[in-house]
Design brief:
Shape of chain B: globular
Number of strands of chain B: 17
Number of domains of chain B: 2
Number of strands of chain A: 0
Strand content of chain A: under 5%
Number of helices of chain A: 12
Strand content of chain B: 15-25%
Number of helices of chain B: 13
Shape of chain A: globular
Distance between the termini of chain A: 57 Å
CATH class of chain A: Mainly Alpha
Oligomer: heterodimer
CATH superfamily of the largest domain in chain B: NADH-ubiquinone oxidoreductase 51kDa subunit
Helix content of chain A: 55-70%
Largest interface: A-B, 44 and 71 residues
Structural class of chain A: mainly alpha
Number of domains of chain A: 1
Order of helices and strands of chain A: HHHHHHHHHHHH
Order of helices and strands of chain B: EEEEEEEEHHEHHEHEHEHEEHEEEHHHHH
Chain lengths: 318, 440
């Protein structure tokens, strides 16, 4: 042996690896969430900051405790922080911090670790946390406030649903985010920036947000036409509420969305259909969270029926 | 030009600039050569010599027993000093005939140049190919005479020469196309004649446009031979993917290229074949790229079979840095070896030396269902699902999910952000299924 080492390393191929890693991907998601974080903090100030801190800290602690109790090695990839942040992004800014913490703990313990931890959960943990909070504290979860001054008001979708006579915000306001709503969802431009970054980095497939948003747009345009509304109507539905946040950050969640390309198309269309159904015919003004959770349920089924044919196999798969 | 390719695959850092501009040089002819009795897929050879025998260069010293086998030849003249077990780049221990070089370079009597090559019949050609011990140089080392043997009811209409060389670092085929283009075209002609087919394709990746130009010039005279430029993507050189890219035909699951009327050979195989047919020289040498960050002067060598890795590395200026891995072949599909005291065999396309910096060991995460493995799989499989089945030892389910269609290109492992050794799980399933089949 003439190498500088005494022993050579023998491993199975391949001997090169892409620079991609789970921690890197999680870091990119955090980066992508930054514009929405800044917008949320700008519009909703201290209360938003407290909710965000509470969610992130309790998610992180819950993760550590869960791993400890289940005798698993710490993973350190930061997915719990993302879950906490995403939950904070889809609750009202004036939510009591203890409720925020409770929702976050529910997300991590029930929705993630009781299902087997990272990669095993059926539902998006942040959305489960939100659903849990909405079911448990319906009043606190639907008390909205105006950006900057914090005066209580309805969300744009709420105004539309209840037809309270209040003036609807303009598309420009929705785009910038100076409207009432959940902490991280109001600014369409901030969420879109983050989504574009994730697409650019190759972490998400355009098929899910593309078909999700496309379905909502087309159906809302038709609904708008029936109602005698103009083209502003579908655009309003696109930018109001948590649609962009859901389409780019939650429906695209690797763990809970289909793994096949065709499956992702179906998944996005399904999410879009459900959002339209809930918003137009349901009891809630907003439907993004439930639409994604419902589609999470059918993800295994979609995967199963959209499996690709094998190379050299029959051309069309039943 | 709209470059053909296949679906799936990955884009790799080629690192070919280390050696692609360096002309192939002759490796020092060693004092001793170590010639393994098995350098091909199929039954190993039995030695035709005993210790103490004098052998000449090109003399047949081992012969195969089965049909799927290829003889071996002395790569130097000299004396057989031992027949001993040695590590083989394939990973196992194989008996090797050790020849002490007498430096006389005496050719065996059987090595006679032919002038009547134009009149050789397919049967005669195949006999020459068998006698010369020609096997596929791409790595699988499948005996060529078997590949060209006619199969009832199957017609070969296309021969594809594989000049893709999609593995990082390797540049032997690239250099061969630049330096031996006539020999490649001649070899292709003999292959086409031995299988009785009319269409020849030489497939080259777009990162070797200089080779494309040279080959186009060399093939201009040849009838029915075209150069096809393919996209740069791994595993473009994989047989089934290559056939698809060149002809649009898909080799059926579990089938051979013959099923779609195609035969694929490496460009290096074509030159070995041309030498055998025209000069009567058997397969006793090949080109090897010695490269990687762990070797001082990367180079392309013309090497006698049986030359030790250590001698090539020494000729390349020795090791640099903290050497961690020696890879026989390319870094995607090559095998790591635990010593450099082992011989170059017919299937050794490269020796890649990696230092600590290239050997990243990172922890494995659970699958996060990112689907990157599925997106890159050129066989359209779901590697993560197969790995999960293999972990559970659900061999039958894995077989149902077409695990046997895996070509083991390792693209999935390359792409996996969770560092899951998908291919190891898949190989385990394949082995278990084959073992179960063998039992029944």
């Amino acid at each position: 042996m003439t190498t500088s080492n005494d022993l050579l390393v023998v491993t199975s191929s391949p001997h090169v690896h892409s620079p991609d890693s789970v921690p890197n991907a999680m870091r990119d998601v955090l980066i992508a969430l930054c514009p929405a974080l800044i917008a949320g903090l700008y519009f909703f100030r201290l209360p938003a900051l407290l909710v965000i801190l509470s969610c992130v800290a309790s998610a992180y602690i819950a993760e550590i405790v869960c791993l400890k109790v289940m005798k698993k090695a710490p993973t350190g990839e930061g997915s719990a922080i993302i879950t906490g942040l995403l939950l904070a992004f889809c609750v009202p800014p004036h939510l009591p911090v203890w409720m925020a913490a409770l929702g976050s703990i529910f997300s991590i313990v029930i929705a993630k670790h009781l299902f087997g931890g990272l990669g095993q959960n059926i539902f998006n943990p942040a959305l489960i946390g939100r659903a849990f909070l909405l079911a448990s504290f319906p009043v606190a979860m639907t008390s909205w406030s105006r950006p900057l001054d914090g005066v209580t008001t309805a969300t744009p979708l709420g105004i539309m649903k209840e037809a309270t006579g209040q003036a609807l915000p303009s598309l420009g306001e929705l785009f910038l985010g100076s409207v009432s709503g959940s902490i991280g969802e109001t600014s369409a431009i901030a969420v879109l920036l983050g989504g574009a970054y994730l697409l650019y980095r190759g972490h998400i497939d355009w098929r899910i947000p593309g078909t999700f948003l496309g379905t909502v747009f087309v159906l809302m345009a038709i609904a708008g036409a029936i109602k005698g509304q103009g083209l502003w109507y579908p655009f309003f539905h696109l930018s109001a509420g948590g649609l962009f946040l859901g389409a780019f950050f939650m429906a695209t969640d690797w763990v809970t969305s289909p793994v096949t390309k065709r499956g992702r198309v179906l998944f996005g269309i399904g999410c879009g259909l459900l959002v339209v159904l809930i918003r137009l015919k349901g009891g809630y003004p907003e439907g993004v969270a439930y639409s994604i959770l419902l589609m999470n349920v059918v993800t295994p089924l979609i995967d199963r029926y959209t499996r690709s044919r094998v190379f050299g196999g029959v051309k069309s798969h039943a | 030009m709209n470059k053909a390719t296949f679906k799936g695959g990955i884009h790799l850092d080629g690192h070919k600039e280390l050696t692609s501009a360096l002309p192939t040089i002759r490796a020092h002819i060693p004092d001793r050569v170590y010639i393994p009795l098995s350098q091909h897929i199929g039954a190993p050879c039995v030695p035709l010599v005993v210790v103490g025998d004098h052998v000449k260069k090109g003399q047949k010293i081992g012969v195969g027993k089965g049909f799927v086998s290829a003889p071996i030849h002395a790569s130097v003249s000299g004396t057989v000093v031992a027949i001993e077990l040695m590590e083989h780049p394939g990973g196992s221990f194989v008996p090797c005939i050790v020849i002490e070089n007498d430096r006389k370079e005496e050719w065996a009597d059987s090595v006679i140049p032919r002038s009547d090559t134009a009149n050789l019949t397919p049967d005669e050609l195949r006999a020459i190919i068998l006698e010369a011990g020609i096997v596929g140089k791409g790595g699988a080392t499948f005996p060529s005479h078997v590949k060209y043997a006619p199969v009832e009811g199957k017609i070969v209409d296309t021969v594809i020469l594989n000049g893709v060389e999609c593995e990082p670092y390797l540049t032997t085929d690239h250099r061969l196309m630049l330096e031996r283009s006539e020999s490649i075209v001649a070899g292709l002609g003999y292959i086409m004649r031995s299988v009785g087919c009319l269409r020849g394709i030489i497939a080259i990746e777009e990162n070797k446009m200089d080779a494309v130009a040279v080959m186009e010039k060399a093939a201009a005279e040849a009838e029915n031979v075209t150069i096809v430029v393919l996209k740069e993507k791994y595993p473009q050189g994989s047989e089934k993917q290559l056939i698809y890219a060149c002809t649009g035909r898909e080799v059926p699951i579990g089938g051979l290229p013959l099923a779609v009327g195609v035969i694929v050979n490496n460009v290096g195989t074509a030159t070995a074949l041309a030498r055998a047919v025209e000069l009567g020289i058997p397969f006793i040498g090949r080109n090897v790229t010695v490269s990687g960050p762990g070797v001082r002067n990367p180079a392309n060598y013309r090497v006698r079979i049986g030359t030790l890795f250590s001698e090539l590395i020494a000729q390349s200026g020795g090791y640099v840095g903290e050497v961690e891995k020696i890879i026989a072949g390319g870094p995607m599909m090559g095998k790591t070896v635990f010593t450099d005291h082992l011989p170059v065999v017919k299937g050794t396309s490269g020796i890649i030396i990696f230092t600590k910096a290239e050997c990243r060991s990172s922890r494995e995460f659970s699958c996060v269902r990112c689907a990157k493995c599925i997106d890159v799989c050129p066989a359209f499989l779901e590697p993560t699902s197969l790995a999960r089945l293999a972990k559970r030892k659900a061999w039958e389910d894995a077989e149902q999910a077409d695990v046997m269609s895996c070509i083991e290109c390792s693209s999935c492992v390359y792409a996996c952000p969770a560092q899951i050794p998908l291919i190891q799980h898949i190989r385990r399933a394949k082995q278990a299924i084959l073992a179960a089949k063998a039992r029944n």
